[in-house]
Design goal:
Elements (H helix, E strand, L loop, with lengths): L10 E10 L5 E6 L1 H12 L16 H6 L2 H7 L8 H10 L15 E4 L2 E5 L4 E9 L1 H4 L1 H13 L10 E9 L7 E3 L1 E2 L4 E2 L19 E4 L2 E12 L2 E2 L2 E2 L5 H15 L11 H9 L2 E14 L2 E14 L5 H10 L12 E4 L10
Antiparallel strand pairs: 1-5, 1-6, 2-4, 3-5, 6-7, 8-9, 10-11, 11-15, 11-16, 12-13, 14-15
């Protein structure tokens, strides 16, 4: 992936499989995003040039040896050499007040967590890891981190052990399709990945919405809690305009990792969102335990109609990038579903 164009909010999605190899089971919390995030950060911090025989032939050996890849991928500070020029570009291009004094940006990765619970010997722990922009180029560094994670500990059982079994590059336009990338025996990357960007969604699939002339009817289903604040409080309501605002904010902030080909037309897109009407929304509070702290967010469905054609590429992109707070940990993950007029269950 070293020679691939990584502009226009490029990203790549990988399905990562760990297999339990110990007699002792792995126990994961109900929402595994936080546990995987912590373990991933711990492992990345221990990647060092020279740990593998193939380091001299690695395409990112210079950045790994001399750079601060951990700080970039895991923390994304605004003054990082990879981010600072793009931050300056954002401040010159956009008038958003929130861009004035940012110290950190969203990290260039998202975890779509595995189910929580108990995993016994020979059972697989499967989750999706999405890398954004420049982080895609550093995929070999990420693989080293995943190998270290596997050699360490996952979950709360100190005696449990796992093995990095498989990494598959997912085809984000063809559900269920993918390319195996990692050979667990040789511990080598054996194939190039699949990279997508905003342009890949300019002709979105019509399998998830109902069209009548220029009016589109679409459904949004949140699979993990969506967290966002209104007047410093976690909100208990969501309308379509708020959803689009959260989506555009997420895209804008992640663009420091992969500059958009054209400036984001925020005003025009919000105007389009304002034409929509919410036909139905059904939300409840989802609760996720994170250590001693409980995190609340909205889970449920929203069905809206409007002239949404200009919004569809961004909405489909957001499926992979998530929205709202703690998106890196897997929060704010939604899917689109086809909803017939008059349908009560949205299926």
């Amino acid at each position: 992936m070293d020679n691939v164009n990584l502009g226009n909010l490029s990203f790549a999605a990988f399905q990562v499989t760990f297999r339990v190899v110990s007699d002792e089971p792995v126990r994961l919390p109900s929402h595994t995003g936080s546990a995987l995030h912590g373990a991933f950060g711990w492992a990345l911090g221990r990647v060092a040039y020279g740990r593998k025989r193939s380091c001299n032939d690695c395409p990112i050996r210079s950045e790994c040896r001399y750079g601060s890849l951990f700080e970039y991928i895991f923390r994304a500070p605004a003054d990082h050499p990879f981010i600072a020029p793009e931050y300056d570009y954002l401040r010159l291009t956009y008038t958003n007040r929130e861009l004035l004094n940012l110290r950190e940006f969203p990290p260039p990765y998202i975890i779509v967590p595995a189910p929580g619970g108990r995993y016994d010997q020979n059972e697989d722990i499967v989750f999706i890891l999405v890398l954004v922009g420049m982080a895609v180029r550093f995929f070999p560094y990420v693989v080293c981190g995943l190998e270290i994670l596997a050699a360490g500990r996952l979950g709360d059982n100190r005696k449990a052990r796992v093995r990095l079994e498989e990494i598959v590059a997912l085809d984000c336009l063809e559900p269920g399709a993918g390319i195996p990338l990692y050979n667990p025996l040789s511990r080598e990357i054996v194939a190039p990945g699949l990279v997508f960007d905003l342009d890949c969604f300019t002709q979105p699939s019509d399998s998830f919405y109902l069209r009548h002339n220029d009016v589109i009817r679409l459904g949004l289903r949140f699979l993990t809690p969506l967290r966002f604040r209104v007047r410093e409080k976690v909100s208990s309501k969501l309308d379509f305009m708020v959803f689009i605002r959260l989506l555009l904010r997420r895209i804008l902030l992640l663009s420091v990792h992969s500059r958009l080909a054209d400036p984001l037309p925020q005003h025009e897109l919000l105007t389009v969102a304002g034409t929509g009407e919410v036909e139905r929304q059904r939300f409840s509070f989802g609760v996720v335990s994170r250590g001693r702290k409980s995190l609340y967010g909205l889970v449920g469905e929203l069905v809206a109609t409007g002239c949404f054609e200009p919004l569809l590429p961004y909405i489909q992109l957001g499926i992979w990038l998530h929205i709202g707070k703690a998106a890196t940990l897997g929060f704010g993950h939604y899917e689109l579903f086809f909803s017939e007029a008059g349908s009560r269950d949205g299926s």
